[in-house]
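Notes from the pairing session

We agreed to fold both candidates in a single pass and log them together. This is the raw record for the first candidate, unedited. Please don't reformat it; downstream parsing expects exactly this layout.

Candidate A
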Amino acid sequence: MENPTVNFEEKIGKTVGRRQTLEVGTASAHLQQTGAQLFAKWGKGMPKGVYRYQSHEEAERDLIRNYVRET
């Protein structure tokens, strides 16, 4: 087995330390606030149930019609 060649001038690019993250409570509050904003903007959307359509265009028309009716 041959000895490996080591280049001491090569930069490895690895950083040692800790990642700075948001605290769990702060991250949770941000997610909850975003969900509330989306719900306020879009409302409930379509009523629950199973829908069967003949084409994507028909499904899109029904989706838009339900969003318009909500606002």
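Candidate B (folded immediately after A)
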Amino acid sequence: MAKHVGVSQATVSRVLNDKPGISDATRAAVLSALDVLGYERPAKLRGDRARLVGLILPEMHDPIYPALAEIIAGALAKRGFSPVLCPRAGEDVTEADYLEILADQHVSGIIFASGAYQYTTANHDQYAALRDRSLPVVLMNATIPGLELPTVSTDDEHALEQAYGHLAALGHQRIALLLGPHDHIASLRKLAAYRALLPAGADHGLVLHAGFTMQEGQAAATTLLQSDATAIICATDALALGAVRAAKRAGRQVPADVSIVGFDDSTLMTHTDPPLTTIRQPAAAMGQAAVALLLAQIDGDTVSADEMLFEPELVVRSSTGPAPAPARKAPAKPRR
């Protein structure tokens, strides 16, 4: 092709890789030669965006995210779009790396199921850049105020109210809370709802933050159990399973000695020992809504940047039960 245009192979390479330093006339000649000779232009040079949608996911150890990816992929396929799955893989591939890859693929839009936008202390410049480029974007499960991007989320405050109300109805008074990191927005929303529900004079110290792994959940729950909590509300199912393990290691029975509530209702929670009481995220409805908002933007429609909240559902299983009776003090020995 270089011979056909009368330029060097290096010049053709620079045009195909959209590099600077090439005149408009030379760039046009190379692209025209591609069309004449029957070659396909690279996606970034086609003018129109490819019918691809990026889907940014966290690490896939939590079953809720593969399920969510399946819902979103199916909804996209019905409209002729293909998802580009971008699961977090430790520190080797960052969110910024994925955004660069998706830009190279010339995607039509991006759905974020996870990302820095969920943390108050993270850098959010990349989202403002996407917004300024008018690339269709939808965020899921919380957002930073001021980003002005369409968002679909579970109503975390209502989720906490359901879990707390369930445990209080069972007679629990020392209800602990096991959350994600201190700057995690969804966890902060749960914390605010929890504090609003605590009765006057209640212990406000029954709260711990941890990472989102089962191991970190077990370590934090071990500490909470030492404070005589009779119930623990957890920010994810993984943390809840860690709490169950901590209780068993401490010789406590679930739910006879301590009740545990999770959050997500991922597919395996009916098969745990005991089956986990949890707050079910409406993943299907949220995934469908995220796709609808994204496709509306792709079609050129204006969509609201207001956060769309979805109501969760309490699913009661065997990990919660009546509060244990207070331990009786041994009667005092009679004086002689």
